[in-house]
Amino acid sequence: MKAARVRPTSPEGKPYGFPGNVAPSSAIEIHDDVPKPQISKPGELLIQVKASTVYKDNLEWNELYPPSHATLGNDFAGIVVAVHDSEQYFRVGDHVYGMTHANRGGAWAEYAIVTTEEAVKKPDNLSWEEAVVIPGSAITADQALFRHVGLETTAQNGQKRVLITGAAGGIGMFLVQFAVLAGHHVIAASSSNERNEAFLRSIGAHEVVEYKDFDTLDKVDVVVDSVGFQVLADCWKVIKPDGTLLSFDACSWGYREAHKEKGISKEGVRALYMIAEPSRESMARITEHVAKGNIKGRVSKVVSLNDVREAYESAHSRGSAHGRIVVLI
Ligand SMILES: NC(=O)c1ccc[n+]([C@@H]2O[C@H](COP(=O)([O-])OP(=O)(O)OC[C@H]3O[C@@H](n4cnc5c(N)ncnc54)[C@H](OP(=O)(O)O)[C@@H]3O)[C@@H](O)[C@H]2O)c1
């Protein structure tokens, strides 16, 4: 079968990994002769992949690198072709979508093994492209806000002021929609109001701000950061002394210790990092919101598996198209 894989660092199959050993995009290779995976354990499904997505910094996700050839692609939408499913959630022929575990990927391929925890049935009214932009981004946003930060899912016991960085990004747009839906006051931050304000208002943001203008903001209870680096460093200035700061940007790992050393962190602020986990329960709730039209994903571009390396590179440039790049397989 055809698959896009990350070439190992050496002929002996030494994997990439942190620190300082991240695969360059040129390490993404298309192969036509990858063995089709076979299901072997209870709870596994073999799916014919119809669509996957591209994430900025995916080659920095060091969890992917234990095997010698990593196949990227965590979001999947496809058709079940074999099941080892004692609980009988799924049957051959079901149309499913979801997110594979961060340490496995697998969906930049014609066939992939996913688990019954990772998949749910795809709503019939969503195309493969429309469906596949939802799982990883919406799960990350949902778990960031409600599991890790612990925001109320209805703000009736107290509305919080929530600042979201990278708000116009692939995950940021879900963070904005979920926090607004829960009734919180959402301030959407990006590098350019000119490029992003109309879009951010259209998905419900109450205020918009550029990163360079953080000083003008009233203090916030919660910051959820998807950008990292200097933007994350600047977030400490806008957070209340007892607030919560969470970053999930791939390069923010270890930021708490680094910022403490630099003297820019605040003692009373809860500083968190997270990695999203596949969850049927999260996906079921998200699918319900999608079906009701409460939450929407966006496709910025559709590419074929052959063009996935160029697509990965273009995910690292700022453009005017909001949404996620879809790989149609
Ligand atoms: N921890 C986890 O579980 C998890 C899960 C999924 C993804 N991630 C990571 O989370 C981060 C955000 O993912 P995403 O898919 O939301 O990213 P994205 O849409 O590609 O980018 C998010 C924002 O980053 C800003 N940005 C900063 N430097 C950029 C550059 N060189 N090119 C383009 N945009 C840039 C942009 O905001 P402005 O235009 O406003 O600057 C953009 O909207 C990535 O590092 C991704 O790998 C982590």
Protein described:
With 329 residues, the chain is an alpha/beta fold. The protein has 2 domains: 3-133 and 298-328, Medium-chain alcohol dehydrogenases, catalytic domain (Quinone Oxidoreductase, Chain A, domain 1, Alpha-Beta Complex); 138-273, Rossmann fold, CATH 3.40.50. Helix content is 22%, strand content 27%. The protein contains 8 helices and 16 strands. The strands form 3 sheets. Strands 3, 5, 6, 7, 8, 15 and 16 form a 7-stranded mixed β-sheet that branches. The protein has a 6-stranded parallel β-sheet with strand order 11-10-9-12-13-14, sandwiched between helices. The model has no long low-confidence stretch (mean pLDDT 94). InterPro entries: ADH-like_N, ER, GroES-like_sf, Lipid_raft_assoc_Zn_ADH, NAD(P)-bd_dom_sf. This is Enoyl reductase (ER) domain-containing protein.
Q: What's the topology here?
A:
Blueprint lengths: L2 E4 L21 E4 L12 E10 L16 E2 L3 E10 L10 E5 L11 E5 L3 E3 L6 H5 L2 H14 L12 E5 L6 H10 L3 E6 L2 H10 L4 E4 L9 E6 L3 H7 L3 E9 L7 H8 L7 E4 L6 H13 L6 E6 L3 H7 L9 E5 L1
Parallel strand pairs: 9-10, 9-12, 10-11, 12-13, 13-14, 15-16
Antiparallel strand pairs: 1-2, 1-4, 3-5, 3-7, 3-16, 5-6, 6-8
Helix pairs in contact: 2-3
The structure holds NADP nicotinamide-adenine-dinucleotide phosphate.
Protein name: Enoyl reductase (ER) domain-containing protein
InterPro entries: ADH-like_N, ER, GroES-like_sf, Lipid_raft_assoc_Zn_ADH, NAD(P)-bd_dom_sf
GO molecular function: oxidoreductase activity
